[in-house]
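Thread amino acids onto this structure.
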């Protein structure tokens, strides 16, 4: 996915971002790290074609895209994204019933097991904790068999234990799928645990060049290297404000 020359403005305000360029490498997890209000979520909505920039274009496989697609699944921080009148299994089956998943869409039981909710299919969203709802939302997104997951701080409101569990779930899902992920966060530790590449976005909506995760493929959150890099990245993050 290539975001090329994107400019997004609100009336009578400075641009959220202007002439923004970002390439999300196929099969990678790219983390967009920046302070609240810098334009990260707006960029993600543009990538999902749920918001329209005044200038620029979104390219996938060299072709410009203009409208939302089941190939690009957006997951928000809000855990109230499930349809409350459907049970969890029917929520997950919804993309396939609407024709979004095609013949390769996995069934709800498999996806619920994948995200660690093997016995939750008959429950309704109101019966789930916040962490369980987020896992169910992730399962529903995967039911569409997407090529791209666009994640807008989906774990930010969860406690540390549940967030760590969902990080592991996401890593396991990536290992068996041809999946490209763009994750928006302001959590430096989350970026170090999950990202292949890290892009910084400052308060003016400007992007740094993508950087490889300094920890490489081995990302032990208990290691001295992890804490050293987290301190370094936090110092850099403070300069973005």
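Threaded sequence (241 positions):
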């Amino acid at each position: 996915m290539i975001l090329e020359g994107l400019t997004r403005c609100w009336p009578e305000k400075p641009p959220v971002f202007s002439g923004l360029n970002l390439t999300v490498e196929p099969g990678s997890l790219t983390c967009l790290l920046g302070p609240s209000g810098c334009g990260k979520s707006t960029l993600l909505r543009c990538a999902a074609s749920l918001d329209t920039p005044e200038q620029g274009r979104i390219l996938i496989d060299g072709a410009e895209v203009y409208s939302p697609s089941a190939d690009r699944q957006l997951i928000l921080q809000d855990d109230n994204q499930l349809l409350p009148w459907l049970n969890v299994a029917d929520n997950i089956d919804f993309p396939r019933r609407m024709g979004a998943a095609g013949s390769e869409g996995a069934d709800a039981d498999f996806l619920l097991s994948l995200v660690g909710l093997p016995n939750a299919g008959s429950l309704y969203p109101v019966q789930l904790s916040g962490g369980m709802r987020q896992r169910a939302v992730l399962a529903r997104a995967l039911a569409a068999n997407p090529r791209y997951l666009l994640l807008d701080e989906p774990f930010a409101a969860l406690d540390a234990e549940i967030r760590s569990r969902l990080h592991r779930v996401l890593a396991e899902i990536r290992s068996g799928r041809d999946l490209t992920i763009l994750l928006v966060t302001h959590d430096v530790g989350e970026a170090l645990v999950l990202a292949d590449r890290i892009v910084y976005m400052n308060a003016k909506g400007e992007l740094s060049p993508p950087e490889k995760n300094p920890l490489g493929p081995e990302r032990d959150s208990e290691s001295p290297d992890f804490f050293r890099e987290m301190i370094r990245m936090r110092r850099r993050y403070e300069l973005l404000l």
